[in-house]
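Question:
When you can, review this sequence-structure pair and walk me through the tokens.
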Amino acid sequence: MKLDGFGLFVNNMEKMIRFYRDVLGFEIKEVENTSNVYLIKDGTLFLLYGRKDFEEMTNRNYEYSKNVNGHFEIALYVDTFEEVDIEYDKAIAKGAAPILKPTTEPWGQRTCYIADPEGNLIEIGSFNKPFER
């Protein structure tokens, strides 16, 4: 199997599309008013699914975290420590919720955390060198 992408189950599709597109620069691949929305970031597929639509499709009800979601994070990498600070400030200015201001950790990474409008955690970090796979 090959990883194709990952998705979030969302309450407010329009708000979440605007956040990921306008605040974090994800590219939207289709119209905004659908129950499944495909976005792309650096070649990775990122899907937003309407929670109610997914429940109808699977014929089940699910429990969802409220407020800040501590179950996972989305990690975004930048090449320099300075970019961590810049991207954090830009995201906060555009409406992201601040979680952790930029901090240089003992293991050598500069990192910060923000949250999207539905409380999903997003890390912006760097080891002060270009990204390597």
Q: What stands out?
A: The chain has a mean pLDDT of 93. The chain has two domains: 5-58, 69-126. The CA atoms of residues 55 and 61 lie 6 Å apart.
